Structures
1.
Amino acid sequence: MTEFESLVAVVTGGASGIGLATANLLSSRGATVVALDLNPDVKDPLVGIRADVSDDDSVKAAIDEVVQRFGRLDVVVNNAGIGAQGDVTANTDAEWSKVLDVNVLGMVRVSRAALPHLRKSPSAAIVNTCSIAAWAGLPQRALYSASKGAVYSLTLAMAADHVREGIRVNAVAPGTADTPWVGRLLDSAPDPAAERAALEARQPHGRLVSADEVAGAIAYLASPLSGSTAGTILAVDGGMYGLRLRPK
Ligand code: NAD
């Protein structure tokens, strides 16, 4: 299948986890894919460009480079993000600023730089990586949840603003996904294997979400197969949201 034949896609955070799985999937379906990442170490045919989504000049230069090298830009996957733990007292103002800057403003900066190019595409789509943390009321995730809540609202606002100019904006909301990020969190636990087993047992379908499953949802929302879908937040969480289950 070649839904993305002749299209150019950028994936922020495209060198690891969900972003890398997405970059590989879009590439296998015909796209030229550029991973924008702090550490853009990706294998051919993916192209890596260093970019820091918390730095507007870096983002502008990276998007300019993509369009200069490949002549167009059709798909943006706003996926780069960082985590934070603890209740509302746990993080300093500087930490709040940093996480909101990367997770929310990062998407704003990339979208702002990309929109003039997306307007020229017959197949323009933006997909943001949200999280079930946006609405699930996860304990000990105040800052992270607030950042993803903002991503949720931003996605709806962007969808409303751009759907009439042919640019569809949607988001995926993964549950706990098996990525290097979650691997690092598990490794820091006293008993990583026991922690993993407990985490798996908490998921409705008894296992972590795979990065490839999230990538599949992103690819769908980025492709013409979802040509009439905008302003949708697609949960990829083993059914937690759809079944209205509480995180255990
Ligand atoms: P990951 O840590 O494996 O990958 C994140 C990538 O983003 C890394 O390559 C990192 O270098 C890059 N990155 C970080 N800060 C950046 C910046 N300022 N500029 C450019 N690149 C930057 O993480 P992941 O688990 O694949 O998470 C990807 C996205 O999915 C994040 O937005 C995260 O919030 C979201 N998410 C993850 C899970 C999960 O359980 N893993 C669940 C829900 C949502």
2.
Amino acid sequence: MSHLEFPLTETTRSQSAEDRATVLAKPGFGEHFTDFMTHARWTAEDGWTGGEVVPFGPLTLSPAAAVFHYAQEIFEGLKAFRHADGSVWTFRPEKNAERMQRSARRLALPELPTEDFLASLTAQVAADEPWVPAAGGEDSLYIRPFMFASESFLGVRAAQQVDYYVITSPAGAYFPRGVQPLVVWVSDTYARAGAGGTGDAKCGGNYASSLLGKKEAAEHGADEVLFLDSETHTTIDELSGMNVMAITNDGRILTPELTGSILEGVTRDSILQLARDRGLEPGEQKMSMDWVTDRIAGGEIVEMFACGTAAVINPIGEFRSPKGSWTVGDGGSGEITLSLREELTGIQTGTVEDRHGWLHRL
Ligand code: COI
């Protein structure tokens, strides 16, 4: 068990208060980065050492660092929210710590103990506290912890040196059009992950394998791509970086079961709980795309949405595939979708009671 501390090594900010205010007025998603980053190193010999908060800036790595060649890398995504009293909170970070440990095991990377993960978030957000958007809206400070094989070695084996960083980025809506119904392309060409692969690990490779599908989606005028299972190309897995859910006219909320090729989303889990709380019956099940489109056409599936930390909850208005197109409900933003979204963001921003104890003060 390591107990890393993350002291701030340098207090000078690289960006002015004016530049920061300009960014915070319109943060976008993932475009702007804060003044600091948090770092620790692991070696097979010494374990985790050297926690520190340093100025945000380029990394110096050997071109032979294993991550460049064999993609031994994992990451996480969380958000920090400012509440009305000025305090700063994040949401269920222990779940991200545990998922990062599971991802690390799958990618043969070292596990970062939960307390060190939490300490790294606290140190990073404390250093960059002025970058946490003001209370009263949904903007947040997106937190991106990541870990990669930095050992300079071209043999194929688990690296003996690994670096862990946390960077932060002020965030507004994930999709460029804001919270508007998405057009989703169903890829029958590409799969995101296969049985026994890394689909349930949050590793860069899964996202790399989604990119061509996302490009194909854009060529069909769609905002997102939905991947089907790699074996039969029939059952729904997930979108390029989000889980997917459907609401039926008889009060059920359905989402693909966790098969090992789907990411176990923290937002996914939270929505299932909130849905249960309000009397919707959650169903985690195999969902074939034909079954879904039949029920959309028959009016039994009335709403669908994408969900994830970055995307929060975003309605899906239409599916397109080589077989045809289907409008979900009236193609707009579903009532239950928007009300779940309001409840979730309300808990996160401190305006709705946190009855499950999900908030963690940073
Ligand atoms: C997140 O939702 O935090 C992710 O890591 C997914 C990515 C699409 C930004």
